[in-house]
Amino acid sequence: MTEDGNSTLPPSRRGRRPGASGTRQAILDAARARFAEDGYAAATIRKIASDAGVNAALVMQFYRSKDELFAAVMSISPGALSRIEQAFDGPEQALGERVTRAHLTLWEGDPRDSESLLAMLRAAISRPQAAAQLREFIQARLLKQIRPRLRDDHDAAVRSGLASSMLMGVIVGRRIVQVPALAEEDLESVIRRVAPAIQTVLTGGMEV
Amino acid sequence: MTEDGNSTLPPSRRGRRPGASGTRQAILDAARARFAEDGYAAATIRKIASDAGVNAALVMQFYRSKDELFAAVMSISPGALSRIEQAFDGPEQALGERVTRAHLTLWEGDPRDSESLLAMLRAAISRPQAAAQLREFIQARLLKQIRPRLRDDHDAAVRSGLASSMLMGVIVGRRIVQVPALAEEDLESVIRRVAPAIQTVLTGGMEV
DNA sequence: ACGATAAATCAACACTTGTTGATATAAGGG
DNA sequence: CCCTTATATCAACAAGTGTTGATTTATCGT
Question: Does the beta carbon of A193 lie under 8 angstroms from any beta carbon of chain B?
């Protein structure tokens, strides 16, 4: 006994930890979850650091500011985006159903994407920068796809903007405000109910 | 800057001001606008007080805490609510149009109401209390009206929840995210495009 | 006129936030 | 081995937050 071997003496928790840490990614994951759950303001650096099992100062050393950390979180995988774009291929008769499904599954699918989007949405409500990002997502990505299928640009912009906004509203109702009837309803059933309405907005007549 | 360097010495701006001030209402108005514009967290007592041309401590003396001030702001006038309820009277064929119009005009009408709703929506994203309030607004008020017109309760709840959420989404797109095509479009045109979709959600078939 | 009360400001507290500089430990190349 | 670099913690700052107690000035009932 009295032998101070190797195991009993790591008193100071300071300094670099042994092995490959992967801490940077852990911080990013914690940040994404926190931003999505609490919004930008309420998601403090200290909480994020704590979630990642790390000191707050380290977060600042990796990502230089809270803003840059947020920016690092705000990205949607190209794969998810292409899945949305593909939704526009096919018979126009089922356009609403495909667009609705693509949207809702993106917003409720892989946390890597859905949490980013939720965070973006939450932040868009309090931060102009995030609002601009979401605006671009809603506008450019969808408009690019919808435009060729509709008559004139202005019409296409309004229709696609409305469709995106309404689908976004469904997400807000389900995930944020958590209207009981919506939050409990399963995704497939929601899609079945919403799709015809989106179809109406996208292709339905209004000039009648 | 803006230092008033007049030579007369109007002694100490302290103490009660002459005349009936109406300051209490001014604080409430400033708070409503700030909460709607900045959200709960970013709307500081000091900013609200400054908007009302008053010291921050006075705000605390009138409304005892920031929470109570917020609660005081969160109320929609009975008149506005009854206007919404009336929207459900009439031929079912035009139900979507009336509900859409009632909603959108409420959300974009008298600032007394629309700012409260915007503030509620913004706050719902960061504060569970506000989320519950908005949930109740979306659910109870509308469900009570829609229920008699639809077959079973579950169906009615889901349909009315979806309609409200989608309309809320349109507001978010127009007022918060500010999707250009939507923000620029005038209200009447938006109603004309959205109404058929809401009609579809409320009364349209799904079992087909 | 007087005293109670309401309306207003001031100064400060206790706390949290993002951020920074110093320091400590590990990893890796020469 | 040493020296650089990446990883980690600690302590503290400056700014901003909601909130409070003391104080000053006007209003109103008696």
Answer: yes
Residue B125 has a CB neighbour count (10 Å cut-off) of: 24
Nearest residue on chain B to A208, alpha-carbon basis: B192
CB contact under 8 A, A180 and B166: no
Angle between helices A187-203 and B153-171 (to 10 degrees): 50
pLDDT of the residue at B148? 58
* Overall average pLDDT of the B59-72 stretch: 95
Mean pLDDT throughout A134-143?
68
Alpha-carbon span B47 to A101, nearest angstrom: 43
Q: Place domain A78-203 in its CATH homologous superfamily.
A: Tetracycline Repressor, domain 2 (1.10.357.10)
Domain A23-73, CATH among 1.10.10.10, 3.10.20.600, 1.10.10.60, 3.40.50.720: 1.10.10.60
| pLDDT per position as a tens digit, B1-26 | 433 433 344 455 776 766 667 899 99
Chain C: nucleotides under 7 Å from a protein CB? 6-11, 16-27
Query: How do residues A73-99 score in pLDDT, each as one tens digit?
Result: 988 788 887 877 788 778 989 999 999
